[in-house]
Amino acid sequence: MLRRHHLNPEQQPMLYVWDAAADLAPTFSQIDNELVAHNLRRAQAAMRGARLGPHHFSGSTGYGHGDLGRAALDDIMAEVMGAEAAIVRIQFVSGTHAISTALFAALRPGDELLAVAGKPYDTLEEVIGLRGTSGHGSLREWGVAYRELPLAEGGDIDWAALASAITPTETKVASIQRSCGYALRPTLSIAAIERAVRIIKEQSPDCIVAVDNCYGEFTEDREPCAVGADLVMGSLIKSPGGTIVPGGGYIAGRADLVAAAAARLTAPGVGTDAGGVSGSTLRLMAQGLFLAPQMVGEALKGGRLVAEVMSREGYAVAPAGRVPSPASFITAVQVGSAARMCAFCRAVQRASPVGSYIEPVPGVTPGYDDEVIFGDGTFIDGSTAELSADGPLRPPYVVYCQGGTHWTHWAVALESIVEDMRACA
Fold first, then answer.
1. SS3 state of residue 405
2. Res 22: pLDDT
3. What single string gives the DSSP state of each residue in 308-343?
């Protein structure tokens, strides 16, 4: 059994958690002084280069033609991502929507999509056509072939298999999911993505490398486009929204591919110069992007604290607590039973600022094949940039912890989590 008796059975959870936080002070300092400061300079330089000003927050209605704020935000995101172009749109309803839009823009009937890092995230299975309702227009229904490379032992990319995986005449897009998603594998680092891009391009220079960047933005000093990825996609209610953007997503990369994605989001001929958005939303998008490096830093510190405390309690965690830059602010805690998953998520909910009185229960969620339980009393509905914990109720029963506007919120939540988990048989 993964769980052993906690190391300090007589110590009160409050003292126990804060002692662990004190032990992590060097790790926290490294995150702030090296990662957060560097990425804040990136965001600041991009905004300064775009000459962002108050006039960019005027907003638009209807078609939204000529919206200077929307255009400036696109330029800023492209610069931050190290890309030729970007679109940042409130009209994306989720990260899955942004990823789906990019894939449908890049692929045509007869093409092949290759998933490089094992099984994709649950919600993408229906986009691809691995499951879901017939007749809804998945990639497979449009004649796109799909293949995936299983992960190597230990959860890394199977580098030997990837070296001969690309069929130049068929493999149009090689997709890389940066985050672990709902899987017990390491999140991919920028160095790993750079290696994968090089191996793919050696086999087929024209193969499009598309990276699902969800949960990865600002966790390292560069983004995937800076190491050769052709497209990156993500959600604004995750890292780049800085916990304050009410919705939306982005696509960045090669200019021609971004233009195709914009046409897929809207319509051919409409492209990037359309899409009304209020001035207050534009301001939140810009401000959220500026806040994002700091918010990600807080989430990383919170994740390191979760890992440190729960590993001391005897649970398997990934990544370990003393890893200063784990490439994603998701921390997986393997709790071993549905009862402990529910106890964990309910403790998180009670420590949340919104809906603390709600008792989470497992339920069916659109896009997921298993019942999922969420502890997420967030200001933005579904925001995983804010403190939250969730997971599908299936063996080996893993809770995925993410977000947090400040690491101390995780410390307060862990006081309840430790107490409840100790009481859970």
1. coil
2. 96
3. HHHHHTT-EEES-TT-S--SSS-EEEE--SHHHHHH
Backbone angles phi and psi of 392, in degrees to 5: -75, 140
Which pairs from 63-66 meet CB under 8 Å and 24+ separation? 63/274, 63/275, 63/276, 64/274, 64/275, 64/276, 64/277, 65/273, 65/274, 66/273
The kind and range of the H/E element at 252 are strand 249-253
Contact indicator for 176, 196 with CB cutoff of 8 Å: yes
pLDDT number for residue 129: 96
Over the stretch 164-217, which tens digit does the pLDDT of each residue have?
Answer: 999 999 999 999 999 988 887 889 999 999 999 999 999 999 999 999 999 999
Is residue 11 within 8 Å of residue 309, measured between CB atoms? no
The answer to whether 417 and 399 have CB atoms below 8 angstroms apart is no
Omega before 396 within 30 of 0, i.e. cis: yes
CA–CA distance, 72 with 47 (Å, rounded to integer): 9
At 212, give phi and psi (nearest 5°): -75, 105
Strands 112-115 and 85-89: unpaired
Distance CA 48, CA 350 (A): 41
Please name the residue that has the structure tokens 């960019």: 56
What are the structural domains of the chain? 13-38+292-423 (3.90.1150.60), 54-289 (3.40.640.10)
Residue pair 116/162 in contact (Cβ under 8 Å)? The answer is yes
Nearest Cα neighbor of 357 from 349, 345, 365, 367 is 349
Model pTM score: 0.94
Q: How far apart are CA 238 and CA 216, in angstroms?
A: 9
- How far is residue 154's CA from residue 5's CA, in Å, rounded to a whole number? 26
Query: Over the stretch 136-171, which tens digit does the pLDDT of each residue have?
Result: 999 999 999 999 999 998 889 999 999 999 999 999
Contacts of 267 (CB under 8 A, 6+ apart): none
DSSP H helical segments within 62-158, as ranges? 68-81, 95-106, 122-128
Rounded to whole angstroms, what are the CA distances from 401 to 168, 302, 374?
Answer: 39, 9, 10
CB atoms inside a 10 Å sphere around CB 392: 18
Residue 8: pLDDT band (50, 70, 90) is: low
Say if residues 208 and 257 touch (Cβ distance below 8 Å): yes
